[in-house]
Prior knowledge:
Order of helices and strands: HHHHEHEHEEH
CATH superfamily of the largest domain: P-loop containing nucleotide triphosphate hydrolases
CATH topology of the largest domain: Rossmann fold
Shape: elongated
Distance between the termini: 39 Å
Number of domains: 2
Amino acid sequence: MEENLTLPPKIGEGGMSVDEIYEMFPNLRERRKTAQGTKLSGGEQQMLAMARILRTGAHLLLLDEITEGLAPVIVQALGRIIVKLKERGFTIVLVEQNFRFAAPLADRFYVMEHGKIAETFSASELDSKTQMLHEYLGV
Length: 139
């Protein structure tokens, strides 16, 4: 599994070291010598995909439905990782249907309906959007 971390080439300065990756993703440290990338759980595969990008020096992460089909404990771990990445200055575009997961992480919201942006608002406006969220998301 560890060879999967070092495979992508560096594209810029500031890529995380393997040690930094293992500090951020302790599940991967535990599995580094014993598991092939294809034998990881769904959550561990998501973590490995994120870790591979972080090694390259990229500062923009595009995350598409990263919580889909994952156990709640893994979803919580991914949420903590996203918070740490935001604190380190990463830009994250998160496409997610799990509003309860995404809401506390987001700085800005874009609600899509039938492939078009139906609403856009900042995190500070979230409380005032309860009716709209109920209409679109059933939240």
